[in-house]
Amino acid sequence: MLLIQQQWIDVGVSKFFEIAKSKKMNDIERLLNATFPFVEDLLKKYGEFFPLASAIQTNESIATVGKYDGEDKPKPDEVIESLKDGLKKGAQNGEYKVIAIFYDVKVIDPNTNQKTYAIAVLVEDQNETTSHTLFYPYKLIADNEILFSIGWKNSKENEIFIH
Fold first, then answer.
1. pLDDT tens, 68-88?
2. Residue 71 backbone dihedrals phi, psi, to 5 degrees
3. E strands, 67-113, where?
4. pTM greater than 0.90 (yes/no)
């Protein structure tokens, strides 16, 4: 696990953080490092995971943000929208300074032009107007280990911290 986790940090996050090194980016990195191992564990145990979110609160603690409506197999898009709604309310109330929503997707990898599974992570900072979706392509291999390849990111206007 340590090798795979180290590979994720070296390949995915470090490439993203070459763009800007600042306190804000360190908060995002801290949030990713706190939540990503849990997502990896879910993938290893179940081969998938339902969307989940985490946030750095204004008091610097990290909170897990979730929504359960009683369904055993909720639609991922509905869960993501529900998480966004909850995070928006928390942001408007001044509870969060950085948020991340983690979800499992099948996308075209721009590095290979092939379909792949990826962990997607929408990240936003209250002091920025741009959000980033980070993609970490993966394959489940023998013994439910995860092999990550080179990630990428997409950027757009914030959805949670609206200025």
1. 677 777 899 999 999 999 999
2. -85, 140
3. 96-109
4. no
